[in-house]
Amino acid sequence: MLKNRAALPRLDYLLTFEAAAELESFAAAAKELHVSETAVSRKIRLLEHHFNCALFVRGHRSVRLTDHGRKLLNGIVPALKTLERASENMLSERQRSTVRMAATNSVSSLWLMPRLHKFHQSNANITISLVSSDIDSECLAEHFDLTILRGDGDWPGYTADRLFGETVFPVCAPGYLLCEPRVEAVEHLPAQSLIEVTNNHTEWLNWKTWLGHHGIDPASVRLSTFVNTYPLAIQAAIDGLGIALGWGHLVDRHLQAGTLVKPLGETHVRTESGYYLLRRTRAKPHAESDVVAEWLMSESAARKRYASG
């Protein structure tokens, strides 16, 4: 801690002095610092008043250092260079700061990506490196700072903050209903063109389990289109290929834009699962990761509410 702050003049006085001394001209220093020559002269005068001695011998068009001025210059140049390096290093670290994230394909494509532009506008110094995968072990690799996964909130070795719950309902393009008008009740769904996602997560809701919650015999379900990722299923629904299962929060943007509609209104299935933001409990402190995590939780707090979350 500095013992005698009163002995220090203002940094802008010293920077002005250094520029004038190196260039041997108040006018040249003014041009270099993008200020007026009067401002340079005033700051030098105040610096001389602070040290109670003349630092320059003024000429008609140039200046030269006095012995006191030369002594001051020799003393401050190393300190100014140290400050410059410290500032450059700080800026460089901030500019290079990367937060490594992993998330499911659905969250990455439908929930995160539409929000990243807004985040970067306010946090230009943070780069988010995002990996999208539906393989949990890949998303839980140790090199990730943050992970978003679906589950019950229990991941040993991780803290888990709930981003949103799981509410699932049918969605389709408005144009699909023009060709298939009888989609007014759950009982009409088995005869429709249903878009299914095939993956290794047997615990995830599919059409047979969703309809089973409403008492429909799974054997009566007719599946017309199969894709291997959820974003593809949503795109297929937007393109009018049929009806997909829509996860609340993941399809909100398309519902608001009108590219998707809910043909059965508020008919849905609500599960006990949800999507969670995970952080390793033994991870080293990382200020930028905290910034991203706080932003994600603020986005969660502003979400539309389905049922109880």
| Strand coverage percent | 15-25%
| Helix percent band | 40-55%
Instruction: Kindly name the structural category.
Output: alpha/beta
Low-confidence stretches are none
Shape field: elongated
In quaternary terms, these chains amount to: single chain
Question: How is the main sheet built?
Answer: 6 strands, mixed
In short:
This protein is α/β, with parallel strands linked by helices and 309 residues long. The chain has helices at 11-23, 26-33, 37-51, 67-96, 105-122, 136-139, 174-179, 207-213, 230-238, 252-257, 287-301, and strands spanning 56-58, 63-65, 98-103, 127-132, 146-151, 158-171, 194-197, 223-227, 244-247, 269-280.
